[in-house]
Amino acid sequence: MYDPKPGDRLDSLDTPSMIVDLDLMEENIAKLFHLLLPTGVNVRPHLKTTKSPDLAKILIAAGAKGGCVAKLSEAEVMCAAGVDDILITCEVVGPAKVARLVELFRKYRKIQTVVDSQEGATAINGALEASGIEAPIQVLIDIDVGLHRTGVAPEGALALAKHIATLSHLKLIGVQGYEGHLQHVHGREQREKECRASMVLLSATATLLREEGFNIEVVTTGGTGTAEFCATTPGITEVQPGSFIFMDSDYRKAVGTYFSHSLTIISTVISKSATERTVTIDAGLKSLTTDSGFAEPKDMPDVTYTPMGDEHGWLSWGEDIEGFPIGARVELIPSHIDPTVNLHDFYYAHRKGVIEEIWPVATRGKVQ
Amino acid sequence: MYDPKPGDRLDSLDTPSMIVDLDLMEENIAKLFHLLLPTGVNVRPHLKTTKSPDLAKILIAAGAKGGCVAKLSEAEVMCAAGVDDILITCEVVGPAKVARLVELFRKYRKIQTVVDSQEGATAINGALEASGIEAPIQVLIDIDVGLHRTGVAPEGALALAKHIATLSHLKLIGVQGYEGHLQHVHGREQREKECRASMVLLSATATLLREEGFNIEVVTTGGTGTAEFCATTPGITEVQPGSFIFMDSDYRKAVGTYFSHSLTIISTVISKSATERTVTIDAGLKSLTTDSGFAEPKDMPDVTYTPMGDEHGWLSWGEDIEGFPIGARVELIPSHIDPTVNLHDFYYAHRKGVIEEIWPVATRGKVQ
């Protein structure tokens, strides 16, 4: 039976497999906290990247205050695994999901969630009232700081705050504003400029709410591309970077090489193709996502990867390269880390080629 | 606890969820077998679409002869669930994978696999010899009929057949040639013409091998876009359609509406976005793939879907549509069915809105 174990060599893994270089990952973690903790903000890493309570605990040990998840079903898994200081960064909408939130909150009282509509806030409050739970759940108003995906416009925040104040089972503790549209702005200066402009919207909204008497303790925002700017913008109390731990080729194009590519997909050459400078590997759309471009062969700048269906991809190369025999193994750097991790069931984490840890991707597929 | 059950109404499902309209699915299955069985070919559906032994058994009951899988790890799951007449359509390469093949073959002797290199054939043979298993495994030579992904060129088939004949534990039973590059050719006439030209390569290779004394019983090929042409091409004995059971918007553009969209992803409007004719739903890159374009809202030709990250998407519409309130539910037709199914853990199969079956996507993530 195929049953990889810590102590096995990387070479013994079947492919495709998702592997993590522990030295590089630990360096990324150390760099992030070295950068952010001295600013005094809370670092609440977004766990939508790693999808793993094991990795969440490593981040908490390094200085993180809890974590973020995108979806309620991710929070269920994290809490059950002992990571219960969790902010759900997407709106919880619909009777089934609200019922799940109530059940989760019954057991885990640290849960925080966001709201961006009166309907949404009222529904959560009604379900909590009906549940007999007496404590209010902590909520943050989600503010649209330019991404136009979720969040109330800054000028609508006050009305929503006043509405929340009428609800017995919701306690407003802060605001969230995610500038997702700025994470991949190329060029550090331009990204900083746009980020700080976006953060003005968020902190001004927080100030306005405070002036109206609301107790806004948390102002949370930021990703890997902007966390360092957010953390030094007055009024921001918390940042949510996620991808820094593994990185991807799309992020590197924007933010450079401060963080290393610590995660790759290892693959095998399974066939010679009809063209002379191409072979076929066993990793396709089911192993590497394409929404942000194609994956890149690691340490092989003259070799390109092209997906060829769900289970295959081409490696193509220029004249200076000899080629790849059948059975050769290559590592690929994902173009977009979060959805790539979502395709895999396990991390095989190694140090210098020897597997140390096998972590399940515990919240993989938790889209609800 | 969230625990959907047969008998529940579709409305009670949390979102995003993957749902199947059983009436439409059964009609698709009936149409396929009505089209193909009278031609006399075997129908060996490609189970990389459904990823479910439950659905494989439904197809076998309808007339299928076993099934195909792309990867060895899918075959392991199918065999353990009682679906053991399986052809693995990708080359099995690398020591770990070959060892898994040997262990599978030890228990399930009907397994067939493909080879396209002497190295690959020799490695499988060596592992079988060393295992002490006496029976030979049935293999097919994979022929490149124009896709240039895997497969030996037609003119290389004879040399490979002669090599296989020297190997004690491999029994050559046929040839495979997948014309994947033709599945989505638009226009029935053009697709038929290119398909028949491609099939000439395959059947001529089979004839050549027979003339050289090889016993070529199986000539297997074809997908949803070409199966009807393959099935009526002299010399083809088996076809491998998969997507017909659910269809997707990309296939519809090529092959038309003979098969219906029986699978959709149901999603919820969770936020108003900043623009007037757009709302945000809770389905993004983690629920719907984008490699073949974006998903389409079902029965809403004037509404478009745009992914907005891993967990969100926009619905946008023209002037004639009133809009969508928060909490509204919409169904989306995937653009590419196989990798979309791979994102989900369960099928919720309903008839007229009442759930009848909940099938696990048992080979989801089986990329090895």
From TrEMBL, chains A, B:
Family matches, as InterPro entries: Ala_racemase_N, D-amino_acid_metab_enzyme, D-ser_dehydrat-like_dom, D-ser_dehydrat-like_sf, PLP-binding_barrel
SMART domains: D-ser_dehydrat
GO biological process terms on file: D-serine catabolic process
UniProt KW keywords: Lyase
Matching Gene3D superfamilies: Alanine racemase (3.20.20.10), D-serine dehydratase-like domain (2.40.37.20)
Residues annotated as domain D-serine dehydratase-like: 262-351
Pfam families for this protein: Ala_racemase_N, D-ser_dehydrat
Cross-referenced CDD domains: PLPDE_III_LS_D-TA
An example Gene Ontology molecular-function term: D-serine ammonia-lyase activity
Source domain of life: Eukaryota
Entry similarity comment: Belongs to the DSD1 family.
Protein's name in the database: D-serine dehydratase-like domain-containing protein
Species the sequence originates in: Hyaloscypha variabilis (strain UAMH 11265 / GT02V1 / F)
